[in-house]
Sequence to fold (878 residues):
Amino acid sequence: MQRVLAAELAELAARASDADPHPTQRPVRVAGWVHRRRSLATVTFVVLRDRSGLVQIVVKDSAALAQVQALGEESVVSVTALPSPNPSAPGGVELVEPEFEVLSEPDQSPPVELWRPRLTAGLASVLDNAPVALRHPRSVATWQVAAASMQGFRRTLGAAGFTEVATPRLVGASTESGANVFTVDYFGKQAYLAQSPQLYKQILVGVFERVFEVGPVFRAEPHDTARHLAEYVSLDAELGFIADHRDVIVVLRDVIAGMVAAVAEEAQTASALLEVRLPVVPDDIPVIHFSEALRIVGAPDDEPDLAPAHERALSEWAIERHGSEFLAVEGYPMVKRPFYTHPDPDDPRWSKSFDLLFRGLELTTGGQRLHRYADYLTALRASGQPADPYQGYLQAFRHGMPPHGGFAIGLERWVARLIDAANVRAVRLFPRDVNRLFP
Amino acid sequence: MQRVLAAELAELAARASDADPHPTQRPVRVAGWVHRRRSLATVTFVVLRDRSGLVQIVVKDSAALAQVQALGEESVVSVTALPSPNPSAPGGVELVEPEFEVLSEPDQSPPVELWRPRLTAGLASVLDNAPVALRHPRSVATWQVAAASMQGFRRTLGAAGFTEVATPRLVGASTESGANVFTVDYFGKQAYLAQSPQLYKQILVGVFERVFEVGPVFRAEPHDTARHLAEYVSLDAELGFIADHRDVIVVLRDVIAGMVAAVAEEAQTASALLEVRLPVVPDDIPVIHFSEALRIVGAPDDEPDLAPAHERALSEWAIERHGSEFLAVEGYPMVKRPFYTHPDPDDPRWSKSFDLLFRGLELTTGGQRLHRYADYLTALRASGQPADPYQGYLQAFRHGMPPHGGFAIGLERWVARLIDAANVRAVRLFPRDVNRLFP
Fold:
């Protein structure tokens, strides 16, 4: 018999029609994990979990009762039973008169109680037991928000003429910052793990004009904090033929709106379970200059960067002043930006780059990049870096590159903001940090 | 003035209507790279390249002629001009009376001649100069076929209830084969780069039932051959609640059909340029047993594997016998398969795994996996491996896993087959091998 999903049972009951007034009077087959058992005097309830959700099975028959007694939590079963409307059951339908077939029996009880509404174990224990703990409906829902976000990112950019690319993670030169980079034994030579696809996505603007990439990036981050990971998913985009960074902000706005829409559409149940408060993305994200940001938060006008408390204050200001949970701060001082950043032609102390603040935190850094070969040589010299490790990168600029810019969104940081997670580790499937390389 | 793309000019000319009989009599603005210049006695043709294709610009005015003389190949320009129908121009339209604005001037002539129909430089030189050589229309088209394939893979599986996952590339144990694995200095300890998401995707069947992942995998492959890369894109899928590996083949068939459809729809121009011969994917891919395959190719019946010549002969046989460019060979001997492979219950010398042959080569390996904890302990012991590095993996099986299986497709191998490339390096953006870590 064809298997049906838990979530399809409610639809089945709702499907009663003149032609088929009793769709619930024929047996159905469900399959999944024994999520929970509750035994009363004359009846036992088995809650079955499958990829779509939960369904309650009512067991009264004594042979079935005996079988269910022996089924530990996380047993994998196939169940043939009759659907029966019950407004108090999940989905409004429960299954009665079940016959159980055991597909796989667990060797032990789970180390975490998956049936509780929330995992009660601490984060370290949850992460240690991730292969099982991830089965908790809230963990499943968290990742569904992430998966929908990735899809929204790609869909928006694909529709806007961006080409998806796959750039190498194994790189020959430790560029960009040099710090916090992992080294790899590469056939007896030294290679590095990419900290971002920055240099490659710029090169590829020369090939495809508009590119995006979703992939892992690596930071040998020695600090064990709630918002750093050694490996995370970077959502990168870069586009050519821009006037300046404001064109990048327009694309970023559309991308975030697309990600929000994808979560709303494709992770609806997950969002409801997690009580995700999706942001309204304004048609135009408010933009203020860095110097104005300093004034708003009352910081000295020679501060080169915004402190976390400043970012929180600016987010509050944006809500009060513009009714927006997003605020772009443009014109960050050049001294705090990487060498490829485009300066403001009107005042080269400031840059054509920006940070996007969302709910009190920096979500994204982006901006216009240099595009002239001579400017790169000057910028590398000024930053005290040798040109040699950048030969491949510089070659793109030697042969004609349009004005361009882009941005990167950290997937985990985005999801953590959406579901209000205190620690980014809670939103990755198997996080990596200075102390964690397993499971 | 709003920019139009080269490919949109042909549409513009075709858009003539009663309301707007002369859409080509208003100036338009295009932007891109100077792909080629051809000077005749009284006229110079400039071919402009943008992300959509090529457009021919006719220069007659003496001031513009002088300006164009100075524009080297790969200059980035913005051009305002009048569209003019010309059946012999690319797209049936050319631009006349142009005004050029230079956005970026190259520092040198390109090291490869991008304007030739095919790059004449050898593969090594093309790869050395990838930041520029990738701009060649055939290279662009090649990657467009790859990008469309990735999209088709995700779209098909997303529609079939699969969840996209992102599993770690930094792993704590060198599992699976132990050979050809890259080591990473991980905060003073040793980590490894994932050779595949195999173990994680199986764990995640316990979480989401059906998962897929598109991401980089790493092989420290010391052999410098035309079909090995140190880093490539793996298209992975894994699903639970299967009867056996035949259910996996059904999903694989749909995935390949979805990839072919995506290339046909989204990389139409690219496919035409490259003369891609897209395969017809039969509703049911023919399946033969490994022992039958040996008989067909006339190999001894104790051969444990198929040689490349056997694979070519089997592909020919499948075309003759079944009219199919695809052939699944099931039941590979257990001795040649990894420890997690499910044996055939009827004869445990054979496995519930398969290879999918396409145009004479193995495209995919897949199959049913073990799902019982005790079976894993036995299999690891039999393979002489310690259980300790597999603790996280084994935990999933200790707590109930459904019968499951999956497959992996190497993106580069797939694209190389489609475009008939002799070397997989030609279909990656920046390939990595034992001798190549730059650019």
